């Protein structure tokens, strides 16, 4: 329950890899952020890949679901609608500055230790940082649930996005022709199969990098030679996969779980 007179609310939670949070919404706007780990967040007909140093803005009343692609240390802020009129009315993926990161962590982990005046000032600074945060264009379009053929194919790709499997292979399993599914991809997702799968591959790669897997191992699991994979990653994200660094390693969290084996993205 939210206190309508409060400047905001916050939670700090840990989730194991593979945990899913079913579709739901909140009465207040949400800043969904993880200090470690990678989340796959679906909002309407879009999916966001959320590694550390990125967060999702989810407006009040917006239904969304979350899949933990690795062990996740989540830190969320909830902001009343009276304070968020200057923010986007649709969900956004944005870059988290060093200042915003520390503000979110401080509020979520230590809000009970500060007085109201301090927290009020902190929330106001959060709102300023959210308004000026650079937005990310990395959105993965998702199909309409009404078309089971396209949805079945997309879910199969998300489960195993390796280029070792052809479009025809996925089409056969989905029970539709390549021609029909090519048309549906363009109509519903605004791009071809290869481009859409590449975005999913980037999502999977970021989750595995966050878990500390070697670049060469990730590349081969997706059907690439390491050099080809690095080129694809750099073209899409502007940096080599070796430069992708989670804000903290997940090794300790995996050890706590008693299982350091990477989990397939399903």
TrEMBL record:
Stretches assigned to the HTH araC/xylS-type domain: 151-247
Presence of the UniProt keyword Transcription in the record: yes
Protein name stated in the entry: Cupin domain protein
Xref: SMART domains: HTH_ARAC
Keywords recorded for this protein, A-Z: DNA-binding, Transcription, Transcription regulation
InterPro entries: Cupin_2, HTH_AraC, HTH_AraC-typ_CS, RmlC-like_jellyroll, RmlC_Cupin_sf
Pfam families: Cupin_2, HTH_18
PROSITE patterns recorded: HTH_ARAC_FAMILY_1 (PS00041), HTH_ARAC_FAMILY_2 (PS01124)
Source organism of this protein record: Collimonas pratensis
Record's keyword annotation contains Transcription: yes
